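From the pipeline queue, job 12 of 40. The input is one protein chain; the requested action is below.

Action: predict structure.
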Amino acid sequence: MDIAAPDLADPRSDGDVFEPCVTIPGDPAYGLILLCDHAENRLPEDYGTLGLPDAEFDRHIAFDPGAGPVTRGLAERLGAPAVLTTFSRLLIDPNRSADDPTLIMRLSDGAIVPGNHHVDAEERERRLARYYEPYHAAVEQAIERSLAAGVVPALVSVHSFTPVWRGRGRPWQIGVLWDSDPRLALPMVERLATDKTLMVGDNEPYSGALIRDSMYRHGTRRGLAHALIELRQDLISDPDGVAEWVDRLAPILADLNALPEVHEVRHFGSRTGPVDPI
């Protein structure tokens, strides 16, 4: 296994124990749990920079810029629980299935990742056990706390997307991704679309039907209402932009959280095929 030599001066590294995620407790009875799969661009100290220049960690290949601050802002505003990763998606991507070939990227948007080039089965299992699975276990724990409080929770995952992809501009300011369960996603699209200054993407700029991603794992399989929000990165690149979107999204999420149907366990299946048993 070849990985980059540790860079002890790297601000993304942490010489102490590297916790793979952070949980904002919130009120487990609130009924809404926020997730952020790509919240930060940090790496544990022993991985250095995976052989990449520092500038690559400012790009979307390392994390979803702005998504973490928006998630934290919404959690604070709503009093909702939230679970956020603390490691870069270049280490391992928690929004992919464990058998997805893009779980550990060797090449990402033109950037070769030297520290991932020779990852073997042992190293893959190490990253799964130390970073990927603890994050998903924390999400499950948040769900169980809500259930113990007597509420079936709905899940909202916050991501961000680049303004331009492969030379083409993306006109949407926000997209809502979903698979087959419309309970949270469609009312969210409808509420956002009442603002005529917005172009809202319904399953844009990506499809929400990604087999065994985070929403599949925690929402689809368990029958929990869920939706994934994609925000354009240039709109949340500074504190003012983050605050603006927290102000816009918080009342919408609060209103949707009051819908009785989003707090029922209902199975809608998946457009990707038969749903894995729990």
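Job complete. Confidence is low (pLDDT under 50) at residues 1-15.
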